[in-house]
Amino acid sequence: MRRRAASYLLALSIGLVGGAVSAQNINMATVAAAQDFRWGVQAYNSGLFNKSILYFEKSLSEMPGDSRTKEWLGRAYYRSGFISDALDEWNNLLSTGKGSALLQNRVATVSFRRGVGPQPSAESYHYVVARSIQGVGPSYTLFLRPSAVTARPDGGFYLASFATNEILQLDANGGLVRSIRGGLSGFDHPFDVVAPGNGYLYISEYGANRIARCTPEGGKVFRFGSAGVGPGQLLGPQFLASDGKGYIYVSDVGNQRISKFDYNGKFVLSFGQPAGSFGGLQTPAGIAVYDGKVFVADNGAKDIVVFDTSGNYLTTLLAGRLDGPEGLSLYGPHGDLIISDTSRVLLYNVDNDVLRVLNDLSGTGKNILKTVEDANGDLLAADFDASKVFVLSQYSAMYAGLSVQIDRVYSDQFPQVSIDVSVKSRLGSPLTGLDLRNFVITEGSYPVGNPKLIFRGTQGDAELSILVDRSAAMASRKQDIRNAVTGILSGLRGRGTFRVVSAGPNPVVEAGPSTPVDSAARAAADNGTYSSGWRFDLGLRMAISELIPRQGKSAVVFVTQGSLGDSAFRQYPLGDLLSYMQNNGIQFYCVFLDQDARPSEKLLYLCRETGGKSYYLYQPQGVGLIADDVLSSPDGHYVLSYTSPSQSNFGNNYIPVEVEAHLYARSGRDESGYFAPLQF
Predict the structure, then answer these.
(1) N or C: which end of the chain has fewer CB atoms below 10 A?
(2) What is the C-alpha to C-alpha distance for residues 60 and 66, in angstroms, rounded to an integer?
(3) Residue-by-residue DSSP string for 597-631
């Protein structure tokens, strides 16, 4: 047995140093370093980052000059949220000339993200054509005269093909997913399509003077509206918009007005006619609704008219500054408007009255009717006359490339291997909707066998860690805590798992995925100690760790009175906790027990920077919608499987793996590695 173990250790050490060292030159420090490196890699690929750090540090104490172990140690620091330590390790490696170009790019990206924050620059508003999707080719017609596009949360989009009477669903690569034709009677020149999030699509039928509602697959077609000038009647309906509160708005160009319907097709009101000092809409076109205001592009007057949601005229914007505005859509989270203005795509900041040209397609584009921002941050512009959809990307993003991270390698079934991969923009926004065409996998630069995409993050369930504030002020709020946990878990509806963590002086996991909801709610309120010495940082760290390694969309939900106290960051700084979530794809949400509470700005900061939100426990919509918000968030997480072409040497060889991802003109790459199971 001793001889077998010695042979194994010798083979392991030789495998790790590439087989270039003879048995006579092997010493026990090298053997021990190789063994600790192996365990560090295995711990990392199991999501045990703290444990992997210990192994890598021990390996380096035994073999200090090993560059591969140093790179892995930096990677483990990074995934644990310790960005400064990771950068120190990587920069030291680069300073010796042993770091790769890939490592240099990783350091540049991480350093860029951890700055004060991406500041808007001229390049931020400069978009270039990354790709054009042709509707008509020498031997095919995919679409003809596209009048509108609408983004989907999975990176794809809907397109209204006006001349072929259909709505097309295309994926993030521009590939056709399905054609929706409107049931037995079909669509009559569909002009626009919106998906307000209630499980239906709404399509304006310009030729039939009506609105159609159907499922995303094209079923259960229901129509409302009819030709005419009376209430609820339409003459040439064009652009659509939803306010997210149960209402649809349509530009009724023939009647020179905007009509408002509820989601079930019930007519509510029309507006835009002359009233007081307002002379009325001339040629209403695109519509966007934000913060209780309805923005309408008037193609005839060449301006933007603003109403409230009750149809009252408020103001007119951009008079004399537009050529012929058509479609409107929202850009980003703050209500900026994208305006399709003949061949120009414009961005208008309403608050500051700043108008910018994102792209002028003169000479390439002919008649841009609608432009929208897709889930991956690109712009999709529908050119009616050219029968094209232009994909526009930020100039800086085109050349910065993508950020690719191999999160974990599963090698238990070697030679069948699976890898978790996260794909983001340089700013850290997830890229969703990719498929196998967007990935290239190699091992030691050799192509792998039979690659498959077996999971997308958009397909995953929600994985929640509910963190409960154990401050002394919460001791009298036990019923509120029970109500909060019950409300949050009721929203899961079998679409995920949860655990409950109490943030006392010594945080504890109070309930796991198999705990009944009522028992979890009681444990969240009644277990543990309420104390002025409660520890937010330790509790959050534990709540995050419970979600690693993740498979679905992961989030920490913090139930709190809103104040963090003096001991909140005694051991782990705010920045490290934020990085721990960001580097592992975890969002942060807050549930505040009091509506008039003045919560800590640090909590709101964590929500904002991770893509989460904050809620009041007793808001009318309830807190059950948290699960919906988590599930609808963009996710750039993918699992790929393949057959390894590498020799494992009975599990002793370190096997490198590389993944490249690309979308349009952007690409990115990462390297990692693994060990196959040992064979004795």
Answers:
(1) N
(2) 7
(3) ----HHHHHHHHHHT--EEETT-TT-STHHHHHHH
Gap between the Cα atoms of 335 and 330, Å rounded: 6
Whether 368 contacts 344, CB under 8 Å:
yes
**Residue found by looking up tokens 């980003």 in the block:** 332
Q: Which amino acid is at 563?
A: S
How far apart CA 360 and CA 48 sit, in angstroms, is: 50
Query: What pLDDT was estimated at residue 664?
Result: 87
Amino acid identity of 642?
Y
What is the pLDDT at residue 10? 42
User: For residue 118, what pLDDT is reported?
Assistant: 45
Q: What is the DSSP string of 471-527?
A: -GGGTT-HHHHHHHHHHHHHTTTTSEEEEEEEESSS-EEEE-TTS-HHHHHHHHHHS
Domains and CATH numbers, the chain: 2-110 (1.25.40.10), 126-398 (2.120.10.30), 401-458+636-675 (2.60.40), 461-632 (3.40.50.410)
Q: What is the pLDDT of residues 544-576, one digit of tens each?
A: 999 998 777 999 999 999 999 888 999 999 999
Which value, in Å, is the radius of gyration of the alpha carbons in the chain? 28
**CA-based diameter of the chain, in Å?**
98
Q: Give how far Cα 573 sits from Cα of 84, 152, 541, 578, 665, Å.
A: 12, 37, 11, 9, 38
Helical ranges in 26-131 per DSSP H: 28-45, 49-62, 67-79, 83-95, 101-113
Q: How far is residue 428's CA from residue 442's CA, in Å, rounded to a whole number?
A: 24
Strands (E), 93-227: 127-134, 136-137, 140-141, 146-151, 157-161, 166-170, 176-180, 190-194, 201-205, 210-214, 222-224, 226-227
pLDDT in tens, 160-179: 999 999 999 999 999 999 99
Asked whether the beta carbons of 110 and 426 are under 8 A apart, the reply is no
- The CA-atom distances, in angstroms, between 429 and each of 86, 348, 662 are 21, 23, 15
**Cα separation of 262 and 252, whole Å?**
16
Q: What is the pLDDT of residue 464?
A: 97
CA distance 102 to 211: 52
User: For the chain, which ranges sit under pLDDT 50?
Assistant: 1-14, 16-24, 116-120, 122
Amino acid 641: pLDDT: 98
Parallel, antiparallel, or unpaired: how do β-strands 637-643 and 449-456 relate?
Answer: antiparallel
CA distance 595 to 424: 35
Q: Which two tokens stand for residue 96?
A: 């010796």
**Residues for the chain: how many in total?**
680
C-beta of residue 397 within 8 angstroms of C-beta of residue 426: yes
> Average pLDDT, whole number, for the chain?
92
**Phi-psi region at 246: left, alpha or beta (left = phi > 0; alpha = psi -120 to 50):** left
Q: What's the token pair of residue 671? A: 């390297």
**Model-level pTM?**
0.88
pLDDT at 396: 78
Alpha carbon 618 to chain centroid, angstroms? 28
Residues 6+ positions from 57 with CB-CB distance below 8 Å: 73
Specify the pLDDT at position 18.
Answer: 45
Contact 554, 586 (CB under 8 A): yes
Over residues 526-552, the pLDDT tens digits come to: 998 999 999 999 999 999 999 998 777
CB 583 within 8 A of CB 491: no
Phi, psi of 429 (to 5 degrees): -80, 135
In sequence order, the β-bridge partners of residue 347 are: 338, 356
Amino acid at position 241, single letter: A
What stretch of H or E contains 643? strand 637-643
